Amino acid sequence: MPRPDNLAEQVYTQLKADIFDFRLLPGDRFSEGDVAGRMDVSRTPVRQALYRLEKEGYVEVYFRSGWQVKAFDFAYFEELYDVRIVLELAAVSRLCRMEASDNSVLNALKGIWLVAEDERLQDPHEVSALDERFHCALVEATGNREMARMHYAITEQIRIIRRLDFTQAERIAATYQEHAHILEAILQRRSDVAQQLLTRHIELSKQAVREITLHRLQMARQAGPRPA
Fold first, then answer.
1. Checking phi first, is residue 82 left (phi over 0); if not, alpha (psi -120 to 50) or beta?
2. 76, 93, 102, 111: which has the fewest C-beta neighbours closer than 10 Å?
3. Which residues in the chain come in under a pLDDT of 50?
4. Is 213 helix (H, G, I), strand (E, B) or coil?
5. What is the third-level CATH fold of 74-217?
């Protein structure tokens, strides 16, 4: 029999996937009993999972009517993207001042992003993970652990919508091209160019993500009933 903490982890993982994949939509309400029945577990691991998701900002509790998936706050996401840009621009500026011998991280990124078209990955989940790693690696490569911690915290908050950027083939291709250009500018110590490219890259992604998210929400609502 699975341990209670393992059950809570399983419920948490499933509920988070339901939210991220739009099987549970912003505004959807449900009870602990609903989830327990669907997943064939007791209410205790469900409650533990929901409190964890509440702490992360994905759901909120209504003591008389159960739980609700939190509505997307696009103004908040915009602010997170703005802070992310500030941190990554600072990271790029520092990287362009570092010695070439300190570029092991950048050289590893070259092996992922500076590849021929037929070597590019096409799976949205894989590319999404690599994209997230690319941006986190740029900040981590500066050696500033506090900057990296702040950047990763923001990354986790925007992951729910950011991963949608890779549901379209043209965005995958654009990401490979844009990352390659950013890396080349950093390796050439062209700080101004690298920062301009990075800013445009993130702004385009932010715009695409918002449009895709709104479209996915509309399509999901039209699709009918979802899991409780």
1. alpha
2. 111
3. 1
4. helix
5. Four Helix Bundle (Hemerythrin (Met), subunit A) (1.20.120)
